[in-house]
Amino acid sequence: MAGDVAALAAVKCTEINSHVFSSTHCGYPAPGYGQGSNTYEFIPFFRIGGFAFTKPMLLTLVAMVVVVWFFWAAFAKPKLVPRGVQNIGELGITFVRDQILRPMMGKRGDGYLPFLVALFFFIWVMNLMEIIPVAQFPPMSQIAFPAALMLMVYGTYTYLGIKHQGLGGYFRNMIPKDVPVGILVILAPVEILQYVLVRPFTLAVRLFANMFAGHLLLLIFTLATWYLLSLSVGLLFSATSFILTIVITAFEMLIQALQAFIFTILTAQYIGGSLEAGH
Amino acid sequence: MLDVAHHVLAASSSPQQFIINFGAVAYGLAAIGPGIGIGLIFGHGVEAMARQPEARGLIQSNMYIGFALTEALALIGIVVPFIFHAAG
User: Does A190 touch chain B (CB under 8 A)?
Assistant: First the structure.
């Protein structure tokens, strides 16, 4: 036994020879935060002073360019009878208008269509980076990116609420009317807290948590496919992991679109709530 | 419940490790309630829309308000292990 341990210590575990079921018994720490492997931190490409430019930032820029390029190609020279890319662009805009904007804000909210279209497609393309080869990292799995979007939405609906209902009215309308005083004591802080804290917090963390967990899930099964691979019972586990990787990739494609949809629909909901008084 | 704590403690090398490991178990428990809640909201929402398709917009917007509130609990749950991690 002691000899085995000494023999094992002599083997250097690298990414290539780490198969858990092979004679070396090399394994890598599970992906995630801390404890030997940090999946969500990157070596910067370059630094400018204290500012480090990393892969998620590059992916964000790419996502921005893709969205701008797509809509530019679709609508730079719009025609009455749409052809080619314009067809797809109109499909996207009509989807956001009919499925997100109209049910939440009605016709009144049509002025916010550009904001919502940009938000939906930017988040969707950002999330798609999770499964696009070479990129394979969703920038939204770092809290700073959804938090920045959340600040934008939070600022917008707070500003619009104060503009349309007045500073006092905005806070007064948060509290439901016709409620007994006894219940109001409990209800008022909860309702106000919901507007100023819970809404922005959940908006950012929902997107973050879904992309964070999705990336981790994909990574665990991808790595398990390699680590469990050997000519033993491990081959069976490896094959299972491989099949699950593909299944989960398909599942993540659904989640990515769904999270972009939910973020946008809640934004429309909050802005719509600010435009009119009361619930 | 105590049995789970015992197993997690046995698998942890230090008290700090125990807190980190137990955070994962705690989140699993915290996700039960919101999971049931979200199921109820969307289940009843779809049922209501099937009964009255013309009220789709109103039902859907109220459905998403309820969904956002319920999921807040699960999302707070995901942050709690990080807080204990920093404190531990």
Answer: no
| The CATH homologous superfamily of the domain defined by B22-87 | F1F0 ATP synthase subunit C (1.20.20.10)
Say whether the ipTM exceeds 0.95.
no
Domain residue limits, chain B = 22-87
Residues of B engaging A, defined by a Cβ cutoff of 8 Å: 56-57, 60-61, 64-65, 68-69, 71-72, 75, 78-79
Q: Quote the CA–CA distance of B34 and B36 in Å, as a whole number.
A: 5
Of A258, A160, A257, A146, the residue nearest A203 (C-alpha): A146
Residue of B nearest to A106 (CA): B57
Q: Between chains, do A209 and B68 touch, taking CB under 8 Å as contact?
A: no
Q: For residue B11, name the pLDDT band (cuts at 50, 70, 90).
A: low
In angstroms, rounded to a whole number, what is the distance separating the alpha carbons of residues A103 and B60?
A: 8
pLDDT band at residue A9 using 50, 70 and 90 as cut-offs: low
Quickly list DSSP for A224-266: HHHHT-SSSTHHHHHHHHHHHHHHHHHHHHHHHHHHHHHHHHH
